[in-house]
Design brief:
Layout (H helix, E strand, L loop, with lengths): L1 E7 L10 E7 L9 E8 L3 E6 L5 E6 L4 E9 L2 E4 L4 E2 L4 E6 L5 E6 L5 E6 L5 E2 L6 H6 L1 E2 L5 E2 L2 E4 L17 E6 L5 E5 L4 E8 L2 E9 L6 E6 L5 E5 L4 E7 L5 E8 L10 E7 L5 E7 L3 E8 L4 E9 L5 E7 L2 E6 L4 E7 L6 E9 L3 E6 L2
Parallel strand pairs: 13-15
Antiparallel strand pairs: 1-2, 1-32, 2-3, 4-5, 5-6, 6-7, 6-8, 9-10, 10-11, 11-12, 11-15, 14-19, 16-17, 17-18, 18-19, 20-21, 21-22, 22-23, 24-25, 25-26, 26-27, 28-29, 29-30, 30-31
């Protein structure tokens, strides 16, 4: 049985999920048997999930509660809390685990914080020391190289605020660990990609990559070529970043996710890469479509080449799994399975759709 943990929104986030869900496909019978098989762990709005690289431990961002929590596998389709939940920032919406399994990075949409947690040998989360709690919640800085005990957020918008407009708000949205050990995070509110170094005392800002005002960088993938592809929620683009010899990242190209995308109506969500690295997939909430983009050259640019129906309403997350694209439809309360062309990677027809409570994220079970 091919299995997945399913993140979702519960009543505190206007959804009907009762906790981390369990999704499965019967082996040998294909995606047509994909079905939601119940709740693996009761918890409020686990909107994003992340897997420990070695242990049967899953981390959940409890978005409505502003907390994070670890869960250990306790059965074929169940998880148990591995310690109590820990306070995060406002509307924590994304988690990333380091390749060595020693730290967790939480991105908080509501207040812009990026918070680092330690991970114990058993996979449990290590809370900040009590005397550092206030610093964790309120560390504000904008200077390169500044340290923050465990959590950090930017103090200022790099773009001038037009006369008569209200100041914008920082919205951290995702994180990814880079091969050199640094951490890249997006700030959707300030149109930034930040590069951090992890130090014994916490996170230190290495440098910032400023994208055009109003783009809204949301999620990222690190491509096998070494480039970083970033999808923007507001401008419907994919920016490709490259690292120079001095270690500083900078944009090298930008591409509209689809010629049919409508800015202000479509809002790209997840960005996923095919196993062979030749194709990127993003979902457009609004038109409820999936756009495929071909990676060109040495990975330094992408171009849209196919658009297909997602089979769901408000496709918040998707992943490529064994030649199929699985898509979580938050508003429709469904998960779809879309066939991918074996030769081109283009999304084809929706093979199957199953009901699921307000799904927001799909995570393969180890």
């Amino acid at each position: 049985m091919t299995r997945f943990w399913l993140g979702g929104y519960g009543p505190d986030m206007e959804g009907d999920a009762e906790g981390i869900g369990f999704l499965a496909v019967d082996d040998g019978r294909g995606p047509s048997t994909l079905a939601h098989r119940g709740t693996a762990a009761p918890v409020a709005s686990p909107s994003w999930l992340a897997q420990h690289p070695r242990l049967d431990v899953v981390y959940a961002a409890l978005e409505g509660a502003g907390a994070v929590q670890a869960f250990a596998r306790s059965g074929e389709a169940t998880l148990r809390p591995l310690g109590p939940s820990l306070t995060a920032g406002d509307s924590v919406c994304h988690l990333a685990v380091s390749p060595d399994g020693r730290m967790l990075i939480a991105s908080c949409y509501g207040d812009g914080q990026v918070i680092r947690y330690g991970i114990a040998e058993d996979g449990g989360l290590v809370p900040a020391a009590p005397d550092r709690a206030a610093v964790l919640r309120a560390a504000l800085f904008g200077q390169e190289g500044a340290d923050a005990e465990q959590g950090a957020s930017a103090a200022s918008d790099p773009h001038p605020v037009p006369a008569g407009e209200e100041p914008r708000v920082s919205h951290a949205h995702s994180a990814i660990f880079l091969p050199d050990g640094r951490i890249a995070t997006t700030d959707l509110g300030f149109d930034l990609v930040r590069i951090w170094r992890s130090r014994p005392t916490g996170l230190a800002l290495d440098h910032e990559v400023v994208l055009p005002r109003g783009t809204g960088p949301r999620h990222m993938v690190h491509h096998p070529s070494g480039h970083l592809h970033v999808v923007t929620e507001y401008s419907c683009e994919v920016f490709t970043l490259a690292s120079a010899r001095d270690g500083r990242w900078a944009p090298v190209s930008a591409t509209t996710v689809s010629q049919l995308a409508e800015v202000g109506t479509d809002f790209p969500a997840e960005l996923a890469v095919s196993k062979d690295g030749r194709t990127l997939y993003t979902a457009l909430r609004g038109s409820n479509t999936i756009s495929a983009l071909r990676v060109t050259g040495a990975g330094e640019a992408v171009e849209p080449y196919a658009l297909a129906d997602s089979g769901v309403d408000w496709p918040r997350h998707h992943l490529v799994h064994e030649g199929v694209l699985l898509v979580a439809g938050q508003r429709s309360g469904t998960v779809s399975a879309i066939d991918l062309d074996e030769r081109t990677g283009a999304p084809r027809e929706v093979r199957h759709t199953t009901t699921a409570p307000a799904p927001t994220m799909i995570l393969p079970v180890r």
